UniProtKB/TrEMBL annotation:
The keyword Calcium applies. Its EC number is 1.11.1.7. Ca(2+) 2 binds at residues 208, 256, 259, 264. The keyword Heme applies. Removal of H(2)O(2), oxidation of toxic reductants, biosynthesis and degradation of lignin, suberization, auxin catabolism, response to environmental stresses such as wounding, pathogen attack and oxidative stress. These functions might be dependent on each isozyme/isoform in each plant tissue. This is Peroxidase. Substrate binds at residue 177. It comes from Raphanus sativus. Residues 1-22 form the signal peptide. The record marks 81 as: Transition state stabilizer. Belongs to the peroxidase family. Classical plant (class III) peroxidase subfamily. Keywords: Calcium, Disulfide bond, Glycoprotein, Heme, Hydrogen peroxide, Iron, Metal-binding, Oxidoreductase, Peroxidase, Secreted, Signal.
């Protein structure tokens, strides 16, 4: 009875967090000025930033993302993950794209990241259309949204005007939450971004698409807590399935094995059945701070998750941005290289 009351309260919180024009997220063409009533613009970003200087900005991004994902559909989830790894370090500043010895991109924590070539292709096209005007950070934010939307996910309003960072450090890549963190550690990380427990559960729902490398879960399957056994929180039949799929660390497994290419709420339903692939996934149903939210998203229509995902993503891409007033930023000519550094 107590859990039912908690879930009801959580649902009220979730619905209250929906955008004013909730229906507009499902279809790009329905976006209107209502979004300005809730979208934070206190960091000098603007929803109309490229309206005059580079009118085809989003069209170029959408076209390139569609071209690349048509050939390789797995690039869609990869772009979303690339954005998380960028924003989760020093903020959404394209630092993860810099490629030199000692950069985030060269860190062991970044070795499975993909999508760099697609971002480079977009940047190359952008330099032809709008030279020296569009930052790599804005391109990554726009490309991630485009990929999510093209996969059937929600559309959210992106404000633009980010600058690119000049520096990138491999040690900072360790700040990105890993699949083995506990909920308290995850919440502390999210709170440092200005995000909350609802954002944590919602953004974890990005695992409704994409894959994980088996190396990240083999300890759960073969040597949980140094017992040489399997994590008892995994459904036994699901554990057997994962062991068959993950004989080698280099193999991959879908994060949502039921509907792996559909952007829906099946991820939360799976968690309720003890079918979370990553440790951090399954921990969400164990912790009393997150379990009611998982239950709510599992039991309510998928559209509720989709709308809230749009809200949380609009917050995430606003984290730690560099703007024109910051002297430390620049608009890179090539996304993998700083204009201001010799490497």
């Amino acid at each position: 009875m107590k859990l039912a009351v908690v879930s009801a309260v959580i649902l009220v919180v979730v619905f209250a967090a929906w955008p004013v024009s909730a229906g507009g997220y499902g279809h790009k063409e329905e976006e209107d000025d209502d979004t300005k009533s809730w979208f934070p613009l206190d960091n000098l970003l603007s929803l109309n930033y490229y309206d005059k200087s580079c009118q085809n900005f989003e069209k170029i991004v959408d076209t390139k993302v569609r071209e690349w994902t048509k050939t390789d559909p797995s690039l869609g989830p990869a772009l979303l993950r690339l954005l998380f790894h960028d924003c989760g370090v020093t903020g959404c500043d394209a630092s993860v794209l810099l490629d030199y010895e000692g950069s985030e991109r060269r860190s062991p924590a970044s070795k499975t990241l993909r999508g760099f070539e697609l971002i480079d292709d977009i940047k190359s096209e952008m330099e032809k259309a709008c030279p020296k005007l569009v930052s790599c950070a804005d391109i990554l934010a726009a490309a991630s949204r485009s990929a999510t939307y093209q996969l059937g996910g929600p559309y959210w309003p992106n404000a633009y005007g980010r600058r690119d960072s000049i520096n990138s450090y491999a040690r900072d890549a360790e700040k990105v939450p890993s699949g083995r963190r506990d909920i308290t550690g995850l919440l502390e990380t999210f709170q440092s971004y200005g995000l909350n427990v609802l954002d944590l559960v919602v953004l974890s729902g990005a695992h409704t698409i994409g894959k994980a490398y088996c190396g990240t879960i083999q300890s759960r399957l073969y040597n949980f807590n140094a017992t040489q056994g399997t994590d008892p929180s995994i459904d036994p039949k699901f554990a057997d399935y994962l062991r068959r799929k993950c004989r080698w660390a280099s193999e991959t497994v879908y994060l949502d094995v039921e509907t792996p290419v559909v952007f829906d709420n099946q991820y939360y339903i799976n968690l309720q059945k003890n079918m979370g692939v990553l440790t951090t996934d399954q921990e969400l149903v164990k912790d009393p701070r997150t379990a009611p939210l998982v239950k709510a998203f599992a039991e309510q229509p998928a559209q509720m998750f989709r709308h809230q995902f749009a809200v949380s993503m609009a917050k995430l891409v606003n984290v730690g941005v560099i703007t024109a007033e910051d002297r430390t930023g620049e608009i890179r000519r090539v996304c993998s290289k700083s204009n201001s550094r010799p490497y």
